[in-house]
């Protein structure tokens, strides 16, 4: 297969997955947007976390909430737990990498907040531990997951599972869903402003 064919194949695979999600995931994405909108517009915090590309997605989504997405609006409370290198490295060094998100949830989270974990496998130990800590503190838990949802599927209050085996495709669907949630929230705020 030449490189042009590789490009076409990758684009087609990504598009096909997203088209499939239009039929299977619209309701759960709307439900997720409902829950997040209700929380952040009442001052509760959206805590986002994940590893690698999922950490980047967590940071990306948090930035869309705090700054803006498509419209001019007030900043919305969101924190990506993968961004404070001093906190992460001290926890990783003194305790375990598995604790880097859970200790932040314990320190910062309160009832009414949302713990939004992103994992392409649903089995990342630090994400699972964060969900457990969040449940113990009374946070609502959302998993943006891949494959079969992994262990996280049974731990969260709400799961969006991308049933696919290719990590890049799962990640592309995850960030698209993050953008859609931001778009729904913008739409609601715009309607209130007009």
Summarize the topology.
Layout: H1 3-24, H2 26-40, E1 46-50, H3 53-66, E2 78-80, H4 85-94, H5 102-108, E3 114-119, H6 125-137, E4 140-146, E5 158-162, H7 167-193
Parallel strand pairs: 1-2, 1-3, 3-4, 4-5
Helix pairs in contact: 2-7, 3-7, 5-6
Concise synopsis of the structure shown:
The chain has 194 residues and is of the alpha/beta class. The protein is built from 7 helices and 5 strands, in the order ααβαβααβαββα. Helix 6 links the parallel strand 3 and strand 4.
Q: Any overview of this molecule?
A:
This protein is of the alpha/beta class. It has a single domain, classed as Glucose-6-phosphate isomerase like protein, domain 1 (Rossmann fold), CATH 3.40.50.10490. It is 56% helix and 13% strand. It has 7 helices and 5 strands; from the N terminus they run ααβαβααβαββα. It has helices at 3-24, 26-40, 53-66, 85-94, 102-108, 125-137, 167-193, and strands at residues 46-50, 78-80, 114-119, 140-146, 158-162.
